[in-house]
Amino acid sequence: MEVDESKKTDGSIGWIPYIPKNVEPRDSPLLDISNQAIWTVSSCKNGYGIDELMSDNVEKYWQSDGPQPHTIHLEFQKKTDVAFMMFYLDYKNDESYTPSKIQIKLGSSHQDIFFRNAQSFNEPQGWCAIDIRDKMERPQRVFWIQIQVIQNHQNGRDTHIRHVRVLGPKRSRVSPTNRIFTGEPHGPFPEHNLVDDEEEFAAFVDRSLVHLSLR
């Protein structure tokens, strides 16, 4: 499939040049895993919701339509490795609707939050990254992400965000064998031996229905 040249700097692949450089080779390449999550927003103006937020057209955007704080929630069906949140913000067009401070929370659910990171923005234009790796710069494994717009420029009430993408490594640092003992999915053992086939064994682990919820 050919890439639309007009999207190289703004749309679905525009975030690539803005990934921070301190990514270890074992975590590369980072992939857009946004479609693996179920997305919800705290509020939205009619016609300016999740579909617009996930669109590749930067002329479209999510606009909140309710009391602050404005939030976006992502829920994954299985424990997922995440490394960065990418935001397309457009102060030139959105002015007081543009977030000036965003906080990311990670956890198993809203009752089990183990990571927070807040970042401020000064009249941002284009793609911005928020690092959600751990202190050792390793991807974190989560079921749940909350994006909270804490403040807008000029104390604006509602917010505009034109794109949000969540990035994760192509391959997890947690080996398929270890995932079984750290709360990752597992199911009936297949008839043939998968130990020598890492990709098939990883798929087997990910199909599990049992979660031990251990970290």
Commentary on this structure:
With 215 residues, this protein is mostly beta strands. The protein has one domain: Galactose-binding domain-like (Jelly Rolls), CATH 2.60.120.260. Helix content is 11%, strand content 37%. It contains four helices and eleven strands. The strands form three sheets. It has a five-stranded antiparallel β-sheet, with no helix packed on it. It has a four-stranded antiparallel β-sheet with strand order 1-11-5-8. The longest helix is centred in the C-terminal third of the chain and has 9 residues. The N terminus and C terminus are likely disordered.
Tags for this entry?
215 residues, mainly beta, Jelly Rolls, 5-stranded antiparallel sheet, 4-stranded antiparallel sheet, 4 helices, 11% helix, globular, disordered N terminus, ubl conjugation pathway, APC_su10/DOC_dom, APC10/Doc1
Please mark out the parts with pLDDT under 50 across 5 or more consecutive residues, or reply none: 1-9, 185-189, 209-215
Succession of helices and strands: EEHEEEHEEEEEEHH
Q: Considering DSSP H and I runs of 4 or more, what fraction of the residues is helical?
A: 10-25%
Shape verdict: globular
Please give the order of strands in the largest beta sheet: 2-4-9-6-7
Oligomeric state as shown? single chain
SS summary, helix count: 4
In the CATH scheme, the class would be Mainly Beta
Task: Kindly state the number of beta strands.
Answer: 11
CATH architecture grouping = Sandwich
Radius of gyration: 18 Å
Distance between the termini: 40 Å
Query: At the fourth CATH level, what is the homologous superfamily?
Result: Galactose-binding domain-like
Protein name: Anaphase-promoting complex subunit 10
Keywords: Cell cycle, Cell division, Mitosis, Ubl conjugation pathway
Family: Belongs to the APC10 family.
GO cellular component, one term: anaphase-promoting complex
